Amino acid sequence: xxxxxxxxxxxxxxxxxxxxxxxxxxxxxxxxxxxxxxxxxxxxxxxxxxxxxxxxxxxxxxxxxxxxxxxxxxxxxxxxxxxxxxxxxxxxxxxxxxxxxxxxxxxxxxxxxxxxxxxxxxxxxxxxxxxxxxxxxxxxxxxxxxxxxxxxxxxxxxxxxxxxxxxxxxxxxxxxxxxxxxxx
Length: 184
Fold this sequence. Notes:
Elements: E1 2-5, H1 8-31, H2 36-73, E2 77-81, E3 85-88, E4 97-100, E5 104-114, E6 117-126, H3 129-135, H4 137-145, E7 158-161, H5 169-183
Antiparallel strand pairs: 1-2, 2-3, 3-4, 5-6, 6-7
């Protein structure tokens, strides 16, 4: 059995950025007479939507801080491979994936560049395309309105993001292909 865990550095940076924004909100809330950030939002959006956006952004920062601090504290594996199956444990438990090796046709790496960041995916081609459509259901709906630019076809393949893991992407691919060759 091979367990691939998240690198601590991958969550530290995002948690640190969210913490800086949270510190700005706390400073604005407790140490200024008038909420200067709300004033900026009021000028742009008006007195009704300005405070609403201010507090919505605050809740989004709190939520992201919670998720990334939870990732820092937990020691759960992200990808688990054994002789029967491969499991991907998503950070927000909405989109976990479990596939038997005999259900997989091929495995490869996919790369996507967004702005200055390069995302790497473990792209799995299942023998049954309905499994890929079911797993990518939300992304397929989003792709109708705006192209996602993913390096794989959402109707035929499943992409598992592997940035920020303890093993390098090529090492993960080698291990996955080894398990696939031995157990399919």
